[in-house]
Amino acid sequence: MDAIQLLREMHADTKLRFKVLLADEDPASAQQRWQALKPLLDLHEELEDQFVYAPVADEMGPGTPLGDWHVRHDADVAVVKGLIAEVDALDSKQPEWRQTVARVMDALSRHVMDEEGQIFGRISQVWESDRLASVGAEMLKRLDKGSPRAAARTRK
């Protein structure tokens, strides 16, 4: 599987996990879903940075859309991490908890729209299919080490 396709599948899986979490009426169960989701978000960001964004930024250099994407990406990640900290400071029985989880989902959705709409296509233009497949294979190996359940879900 190529790296871009893997990231797209992870985005779709994350969106589904958020929807299930927010639809869960039991605060304790929703909290468990949240705790299971957070490491997957961290792992996804790690995969993007290590295998895609850092190498492409090095290759393209500053002053290019791909070379500068990591700055925007890091800013978006900082916003999401701040929202995650807000969720973690709340009790899942409070309505504010779900509202803040929804804000995390919204921030990630905006980021993913930019990423998939503007960045992935550019990467596919500068990296040939063999490179995308090779990087995707490396990412899957890392995904297997980081979270077997996430890897199994992504390979369906």
Poorly predicted regions = 148-156
Shape: elongated
Our estimate of the beta-strand percent is under 5%
Number of E-type strands:
0
The topology string of helices and strands comes to HHHHHH
Biggest sheet features: none
Mean pLDDT: 92
Helical amount: over 70%
Annotation field: number of helices: 6
Rg from alpha-carbon coordinates = 16 Å
Question: Total domains, how many?
Answer: 1
Class of secondary structure makeup: mainly alpha
Oligomeric category: single chain
Terminal CA distance? 12 Å
Description:
By secondary structure, this protein is mainly alpha-helical. The chain has one domain. The chain has six helices and no strands. Helix 1 packs antiparallel against helix 2, helix 2 packs antiparallel against helix 3 and helix 2 runs antiparallel to helix 5. The longest helix has 34 residues. The chain is elongated. The C terminus is likely disordered.
